[in-house]
Amino acid sequence: HHFPSATFLTSAPRLADCPADTGLEVAFAGRSNAGKSSAINTLTHQKSLARTSRTPGRTQLINFFTVNDPQYRLVDLPGYGYAKVPEAVRREWQEHLAHYLRERRSLQGTVLVMDIRHPLTEFDQMMMGWADDNDMPLHILLTKADKLKRGAAMGVLSKVRHQLKEWEDLISVQLFSSQDRVGVEELNERLCQWLTP
Ligand code: GDP
């Protein structure tokens, strides 16, 4: 798999609008502003494949990108949890997200992006609950690792790993930085593993 080849396929407001549920795909999720769009752009070596937004929570569409072949896809799930969003809208996203995670057969795993300074938010824990319910593997990026000194970043990594010990079959964790391109190879490996039939 060669992620720089990623190209935009389509946007879907709801599960019913998603492309045919065949082949293999990997989703990216995260609380708004965690650094998800930046991580996708870093992975694919593209400046604006996923839009990095200054208005968190505005992207409410599921965006699909193909990698080499339409049978291999990256999926950018709606950013979640910005405080300014009305409760009804928040509930609707939550339902779409849960529905996608539950029903999508081509989904091999989800990359859950967390700001290393604010790991394991309420949203993250909800995602972990859904992953557990659906036996879906999660790979956590502790991103913006450049914001902490190396030792402090390693400290957060081991603390988060320790907290997720009971889920270690389903959940893996790594450091990441879009700014310094830290952890790109490790992420690449996990995605290739998931996208290999
Ligand atoms: P999203 O809402 O999760 O897609 O988050 P974005 O990718 O749009 O990033 C939110 C903000 O964090 C932007 O101002 C980014 O420039 C910044 N950001 C994202 N990743 C990193 C990183 O690895 N290091 C630093 N220092 N800033 C980052």
UniProtKB/TrEMBL annotation:
The gene is engB. The keyword GTP-binding applies. Necessary for normal cell division and for the maintenance of normal septation. The lineage of its organism: Bacteria, Pseudomonadati, Pseudomonadota, Gammaproteobacteria, Oceanospirillales. One of its GO terms (molecular function) is metal ion binding. Pfam families: MMR_HSR1. InterPro entries: G_ENGB_dom, GTP-bd, GTP-bd_ribosome_bio_YsxC, P-loop_NTPase. Gene3D superfamilies: P-loop containing nucleotide triphosphate hydrolases. PANTHER family: ENGB-TYPE G DOMAIN-CONTAINING PROTEIN, MSS1/TRME-RELATED GTP-BINDING PROTEIN. This is Probable GTP-binding protein EngB. One of its GO terms (biological process) is division septum assembly. Its cofactor is Mg(2+).
